[in-house]
Amino acid sequence: MNVCNPAEVRALLERYQLAPKKGFGQNFLINPGVPQRIAECSRGLAPMDRPAGVLEIGPGVGALTQYLSEYYDKVTAIEIDRGLIPLLGEVFADHDNITVVNADFMEIDLSAFIEEHFGDILVEGGTVSICANLPYYITTPVLMRILENWSPEKPVPLAGITVMVQLEVARRICAGAEDGDYGALSAAVGLKAEAVKMFDVSAGNFYPVPKVASSVCGIVPHGGIRQIYNRVPENDGAAAKFAQAVSDTIGMAFGQRRKTLVNGLSGRYAKDVTTAALEKMGLRTDIRGEKLSPAEFCKLTAILQGIE
Ligand code: SAM
Fold first, then answer.
1. Would you list the domain boundaries of the chain?
2. Is 202 helix (H, G, I), strand (E, B) or coil?
3. Using CA atoms, how far apart are residues 19 and 12, in angstroms rounded to an integer?
4. Of 183, 268, 274, 293, which is most buried by a Cβ count within 10 Å?
5. Which helix (H) or strand (E) holds 166?
6. Residue 255 confidence class, pLDDT cut points 50, 70, 90
7. Per CATH, which fold does 227-304 belong to?
8. Atom in ligand 1 nearest the alpha carbon of residue 206
9. Is 6 helix (H, G, I), strand (E, B) or coil?
10. Rounded-to-integer distance, Cα 69 and Cα 75, Å
């Protein structure tokens, strides 16, 4: 079955009395070259010499799933739309390395899920990746959830996250502090990972055709805040508290973008304290949050918390 052919996809959906659901952001890929390239890029982020599993979020009718199953030893796909489960069962009846689970990604316990579905791969020293063509409305919460669940101390070796998102969101995810697209999402991703924009995908590659262009991002977790800031408290509990404080600083800094950082943080830190911290860092005291890199957010938080 060709799940990238628009006529076949329509016929398949009709046979199951389904139609693409806007509410679930269902825009299916219909150019096989695109999911193949996404799967290839995704696999390229994981070590080639070790077993590799991939967790797919939102398989739809399976366009990306089929290619992931060629590049990975094992694929587990989480689909929220119950109606698609029997359809996916038919499409992948002959694929013994694909498991489809009916669940809302936002509701699962990610670490437990990975342990349950990829425990065998992890025991062999393998890695797990996450790959998705994400509905646009859920991109940020999904990414934040993955990154929140990942930390260098946690045992799950997440090799990489490959996501197709709206082009503008991709620019924000991958932006550095010096770029115009830099914002809360860029800083939050930068605290834990390196993100690169891989390639753009025009709207004509989907059925139904969305209103926006898309882009594929590769996100590779790095060593976490310890990698970008060298005075993180040694103790794990204190380090976790500090990491949370940095995230809070970023949240407050971008909560009111037009405000200066001193005003943005004033709900938590007295203005003269933040002003002194910025002076200590050699930064302008009227600087806005969007000018600070993830590493500078770590340093600022450390000064504000009396760690530095
Ligand atoms: N992967 C397919 C493709 O590339 O053709 C479908 C992509 S479509 C943009 C997004 C898919 O995510 C849909 O199948 C939708 O039902 C599913 N989805 C939406 N929200 C979800 C959630 N919270 N958890 C799991 N799947 C979700």
1. 6-223, 227-304
2. coil
3. 10
4. 274
5. strand 158-166
6. confident
7. Helicase, Ruva Protein; domain 3 (1.10.8)
8. 5
9. helix
10. 6
Query: What does the alpha-carbon distance between residue 49 and residue 45 come to, in Å, rounded to a whole number?
Result: 12
Which pTM value belongs to this model? Answer: 0.93
The pLDDT assigned to 178 comes to 87
Q: What residues pair up with 216 in beta bridges, in sequence order?
A: 164, 199
- For 30-45, the pLDDT digits (tens) are 999 999 999 999 999 9
With respect to CATH, is domain 6-223 assigned 3.40.640.10? no
Report which residue type is found at 241.
K
Give the residue, by CA position, lying nearest to ligand 1 atom 14. Answer: 60
Specify the amino acid at residue 297: F
Return the number of other C-beta atoms located less than 10 Å from residue 106's C-beta: 12
- Tokens 């949370």: give the residue: 244
- Most ligand 1 atoms within 8 A of CB, residue of 27, 38, 80, 137 to mutate: 80
For tokens 């590769």, the residue is 218
Cβ of 296 below 6 Å from ligand 1 = no
What is the 3 state secondary structure string of 88-143? HHHHCCCCCCEEEEECCHHHCCHHHHHHHHHHHHHHCCCEEEEEEECCHHHHHHHH
